[in-house]
Structures are given as C-alpha cells and as structure tokens.
Amino acid sequence: MITKRIIPCLDVKDGRVVKGVNFQGLSDVDSPVTLASFYSDAGADELVFYDITASAEGRRIFTDVLAEAARRVFIPLTVGGGVSSLDDFDRVLKCGADKVSVNSGAIRDPSLIPEAAKRYGDQCVVISADVKRVGGEYRVFARGGREDTGLEAIEWIKRCVGSGAGEVVVNSMDTDGVRGGFDLPLLSAVCGAVSVPVIASGGAGSVDDFIRLFKDVPGVDAGLAASVFHFGQIRIPDLKASLRGAGIPVRI
Amino acid sequence: MVTIIDYGVGNLFSLVSSFSYIGEDAAVSSDPGEILRADRLILPGVGAFGDAAEKLRATGIGDAVRRAAADGVPLLGICLGMQLLFDSSTEYGVHEGLGLLRGQVRPIGGVIPAGLKIPHIGWNALRFTERGRECPLFSDVGEGEHVYFVHSYYAADCGDSVAATAEYGVPLTAAVSDGRSVFGTQFHPEKSGDVGLRILRSFSGIKKGGSD
C-alpha cells in the first residue's frame, strides 16, 4: 500500500536554513546539508528546499548547497522559490532536484507549467498555491503571500493540473503559523477537484494535527511542515509511530 | 565498476552520486564500444517509452546493451529503463523494446481500482516472489521494506520474471529478473534511501553471468 508522506521544508537564504532551527546536539544546525541528512536519517519521506534569496549570488549559493545535499541524501528532493522559467527548472534539476514547484511564476506566465511538463514530464512539475479566504471564497496569493491575484483557488489549481502539474502543494495562509491544525475544509475541496497527489501545508502544530489530516481528508497524500520539525516539537520517528498506531500507512 | 548508460533520457545526477556515496566506481557512457566492454551496466530512464526506444535504436546503444546482456554482463534497468527491457509497450502507440524479457508495458489505469491516483507516486512496500527471494540484487533487502515509485505504466504478462510486486489496489510489477544477470526495478533505488543504496551495493557485487 502506498504510504502517507511526511515532508520537512527547509527555507534557504544565502545558503543557510532560516525560520529558526533549534536542535540539541546537532552542530552547524542551519546548514541545509546537515539538516537534510538529519531528516533523511530520521525517516523523512521527501524534502522541500525553498529558495527565499532574491540576489543572483544567493541563487548560485543555493544551487551549490542543493547539489551538496543531493550528493548525500537519497530521497526525493523538491525545489521551489523564485522559479519562473525553464532555465530555472534546468538549473535545479541539474543539481539533483527531482521535482520543481512553481507558484508566482505560473501566475505570471501561464505557459510555464505546460512547457515544463512537456520537457521534464508531469511528475516533475508541482504547483504550489498560497491560499487565503477573501470574502467567502478561496483566493490565490502571489509573491510570497503579499499579493491577492483575484484568482479563485480551486479553479486555479484545477487549471494548473489540467495543463500538466503532477502534484499540488496547498499552503493555507489562514492556518499557516498558527499551529492549530491543517486547513481541512480547503484541503477537502482541493482533493475533490483534482486526481493528482495533494500535499498539505500550513498549520501543523502537533502529532494529532497530522493524524486528523490523514483521517479526515483521506485524499491527502502528504503533510509538509517546517518549524515544528526544526524546533524539535515533533520528532519524525515519533510522528510516524503515532500515525501507524492510528492505522495510517507510513514508511518506518 | 558500473557503467551508467547516458542516452539523453533523464537525469543521472542522483544515480552517479549514489554510487559515489557507497564508494563504488561508476562512470557515465554513451559509447556503444564502452558499453560492450563494461563490467556492469545500468540503463536509467525517465519519460516516454517510444522516444527512449528510438534513441536506443538510433545511437546503436540498444544493440550494444543486448549483446552485453547476451554475454552475461549484469544489467540493471531502472524505471523506464526496466520497462525498456521488455518486448513492447503500449504507451502512445505500440513500441518495441529491447526484448530481453518477455512481457508488455501497459498503463496502470487499466488494472488499478477507480479512485486511486495516477501516477503511482510515493513509497510502497516490496513483496518478493520466489525469484526475488533468490535474486542477488535483493540479498540485503527484507520483505515489506519501502522503496520510492513514480510511474504510470507497469510491466504486464511477464510471468516468471517478476521478482517483486507492490500493492496498489492490485499487485504491480516492482522488480524483475531473468534469473541470471538481467534485472530491473520499476522503483528508483537512487531515491529509496538506505534500502536503495543496499540494492545498488548488491548490484555492484554481481559478477558476469549472474553470481554474487
């Protein structure tokens, strides 16, 4: 049986992991390479590297760090952040990424997803959507959540999948950072609308939040989180043991 | 020494890195002469069957792989590379494969229950057949260990050559072997963590003719 995936997300700026990392007994803890190895050993099913640098220099450092991680960590790696062209796809795939997630880039250029899917295959193209409720509807936001695009989220995600995205990351801005649980109504709506894998992001605060996610929205394939893992509030081996105890299939 | 075949299909970064990580020599080659002289061969691949089969034909690499395999050189096909070992595929029309194993590659949509997602993507458990339990490739892998899959097509009608399956509503072919020196994995050992590295290490130890 296919297992539910647990995915830590590393926000990388100028070659270091940001969003605060606090691990006892791990030296050089904000090194993406160290942290990637640590998570892989702990049982993470996949890793997301999110590039939040803006400068060209930062970009170069990011790809160096990615390649270094990909030489040591042998689980699927997804890269996102600032991907706006086929050249960006090429740049990170050559450094060991398996999948590339696009967000604002797909909003600015509607041909990005179909062209990338044609060149690299659907399985390589991930649509990542930042979603927030505005006036009773789900809206897609761009530029790291700063800009309301006016696009209705479910229709937007359907359109992206229809044009070649092979996986969807749904990041709820309403639950993100609150640690009160994933956005189950939004995730149910997305799972009802598309037939590709759906990754839930935003709101994980406890092991129970993951159990509720996979129990209440069986169509969700994976749960993604950052700070609860980085700060050691949730340890992946404990999380997986609890999921298995609750009857949810996981890889241990 | 393992020779990873480069025929312009897919990304070899992780495969090369994984051999270097486990301390095994690996080289990348697109030269049919080098492929014929290789100690061991890996046929990788991502993408569409027809294009890949055509590239193997046009470059002469396909013939070299067939001759090396006939000569007993251990050969491991990975993902699309495994599918190419078979007689044919029905992906976008019928295309001929290398014919090293009997069987046909078909869409999983035709056999899995409605409601399951396509592609079959993620970590799934290996269930070994008798052939798989005797296969040197899996001498270091236990029943039920998880490996990473991404595929929409699977090898069908391949009877005896099935070494392992993975349950996705129905058992899907996960690994194959001719019982001698031709092997294939539908999953990606280079993305399957420690289990995958163990499989690649075992492959590095398989000698010509198939013994380990």
Helix content of chain B: 25-40%
Oligomer: heterodimer
Main beta-sheet strand count, sense and barrel state of chain A:
8 strands, parallel, barrel
Number of strands of chain B: 14
Classify the fold: give the CATH topology of chain A.
TIM Barrel
Strand proportion of chain B, as a percent range, falls in: 25-35%
Protein structure class of chain B? alpha/beta
Write the CATH fold name of chain B: Rossmann fold
**Unreliable segments of chain A (pLDDT under 50, ≥5 consecutive)?**
none
| Tally of helical segments of chain A | 10
| Basic shape of chain A | globular
Q: State Rg of chain A.
A: 17 Å
The CATH superfamily of chain B bears the name Class I glutamine amidotransferase (GATase) domain
Helix-strand sequence of chain B: EHEHEHHEHEEEEEHEEEEEH
Helical content of chain A (DSSP H or I, runs of 4+): 25-40%
The largest contact between protein chains, plus residue counts on each side, is:
A-B, 29 and 31 residues
Gyration radius from CA atoms of chain B, angstroms = 15 Å
Order of helices and strands of chain A: EEHEHEHEHHEEEHEHEHEHH
Named at the architecture level, the CATH assignment of chain A is Alpha-Beta Barrel
Please tally the helical runs of chain B, counting DSSP H or I stretches of 4 or more residues: 7
CATH classification class of chain A = Alpha Beta
Sum up the structure in keywords:
heterodimer, A: 252 residues, alpha/beta, TIM Barrel, eight-stranded parallel β-barrel, 10 helices, globular, B: 212 residues, Rossmann fold, four-stranded mixed beta sheet, 7 helices
If you had to describe this structure to a student in words, what would you say it looks like?
The complex is a heterodimer of chains A (252) and B (212). Chain A has a single domain (5-245), classed as TIM Barrel. Chain A is an alpha/beta fold. An 8-stranded parallel β-barrel of chain A has the order 1-3-4-5-6-9-10-11, surrounded by 7 helices. Chain A has helices spanning 32-42, 56-70, 86-93, 104-108, 112-120, 153-162, 184-193, 207-216, 227-230, 236-245; strands spanning 5-13, 16-18, 47-51, 77-80, 99-102, 125-134, 137-142, 147-152, 167-172, 198-201, 222-225. Chain A contains 10 helices and 11 strands. Chain B is α/β, with parallel strands linked by helices. Helices cover 27% and strands 31% of the residues of chain B. Chain B contains 7 helices and 14 strands. In chain B, strand 13 and strand 14 (182-185) form a beta hairpin. Chain B is globular. The two termini of chain B are 14 Å apart. The mean pLDDT of chain B is 95.
